[in-house]
Amino acid sequence: MRRILLWVLLLIGLGGSVSAGRGGRHAIPAISVFTRDTTGAGDTYLGVLAAALFARNASMPLAMQQASAAAAITVSRPGTRDAFPTAASIRREKRKRA
Length: 98
Prior knowledge:
By secondary structure, the chain is of the alpha+beta class. 43% of the residues lie in helices and 15% in strands. The chain is globular, with a radius of gyration of 13 Å. It starts with 6 loop residues before the first strand and ends with a helix.
């Protein structure tokens, strides 16, 4: 199956993220955490967003929320690879914020 998505996505750091496309416009606030290291935050966000959209067929707002939770975890930890969250830690972060 071929799937084409046409979206514009802006990552605004502390300002959260905004998307616009065929499915409408969505603004997701950043999750406030104590920041230790921002290295890898964008990579984490985009990786989780892509996984949510393509592997789990999530809606754009849900994918953005998951990506925001993952990026919040990443910036709260030092380093890069060791700071990347697991699926379980993303779910825990989302439950804390619900």
